[in-house]
Write a structure and sequence with these properties.
The chain is an alpha/beta fold. It has one domain: 3-Layer(aba) Sandwich (Rossmann fold), CATH 3.40.50.10490. Helices cover 46% and strands 11% of the residues. The protein contains eleven helices and seven strands. The strands form two sheets. The protein has a five-stranded parallel beta sheet with strand order 2-1-3-4-5. A two-stranded antiparallel sheet has the order 6-7. β6 and β7 form a beta hairpin. The longest helix is centred in the C-terminal third of the chain and has 22 residues. The relative contact order is 0.18.
């Protein structure tokens, strides 16, 4: 069954992440824990399918307050494919130098914040804009993506550096640059991309490590609960507490 080739590829990538990336995941988690302990933010940003890891972490059952999504709708959704908010507009915007600066101008940041960027290739201008602006504002920049496979690949940005070359900490998703992983007999292009599974694996390895660090420091976590479990009579109150804390902290952003 050809589909099992995809699950095999995913397991290989996940094993490679576990074997090679835990040290850098710990470094990233320490920076994030510092920001959250200071009651500041880990800002998160990605385009297209690299936005999916952001949606996965918060608000999400088992996630916790401290992660703030910078979601620019035209860069995070192209469900219409053609017409308004289509693929063509998306590809133009993610390669448009200066657009990331405009996005960043819409928020208020603090040097105690950090920013967590997701990009498979690390070459598109909007991500690089965001990273450079974050560094200018004194924030640490953490980047997750196919770093080893991108290497010194030329960016679509006048600064001359790709996202991995700008970052303070890089975690390699270990996904191949071509992304799709399963060959078909009669087609040039492969099917079955693995980068989303890779990035979400990295997300939970990181977020759980942040939680572990903060708990060791005695910091209270405001964890988003499941409110669908029979017999759990306090889930609504715990959820309300999360939303209250999030609302208070986000006022300054």
């Amino acid at each position: 069954m050809l589909a099992l080739e995809w699950t095999k590829k995913v397991r290989e990538v996940m094993a490679q992440i576990e074997d090679t990336q835990l040290d850098n995941i710990r470094k990233a988690a320490e920076i994030m824990a510092d920001s959250i302990q200071a009651e500041r933010w880990v800002h998160t940003f990605g385009c297209g399918h690299a936005n999916l890891p952001i949606e996965e972490m918060y608000p999400r059952i088992g996630g916790f307050v401290g992660f703030h999504p910078l979601c620019e709708l035209p860069l995070t959704s192209f469900t219409h494919i053609i017409g308004d908010m289509g693929i063509n507009q998306f590809l133009f915007l993610e390669r448009c130098e200066g657009f990331g600066n405009t996005i960043m101008d819409s928020y208020t940041f603090d040097k105690r914040d950090c920013i967590w960027l997701f990009s498979h290739t690390g070459i598109n201008a909007v991500n690089i804009d965001v990273a450079l602006k974050a560094k200018e504002l004194g924030m640490k920049v953490i980047v997750f993506g196919s770093a080893a496979n991108t290497g010194d690949k030329k960016p679509r940005h006048s600064c001359g550096k790709n996202l991995f070359q700008i970052a303070d900490v890089v975690v390699d998703s270990c996904a191949p640059l071509v992304d799709a992983s399963v060959s078909l007999k009669n087609h040039f292009d492969k099917v079955g991309p693995v980068s989303t599974m890779a990035l979400i694996t990295c997300v939970w390895l990181t977020v759980i490590t942040v939680a572990e660090i903060l708990e060791e420091r005695g910091v209270k976590l405001y964890i988003h609960p499941s409110h669908n479990v029979p017999g759990d009579t306090t889930a609504h109150e715990r959820l309300a507490e999360c939303i209250k804390v999030y609302r208070e902290r986000v006022k300054g952003v």
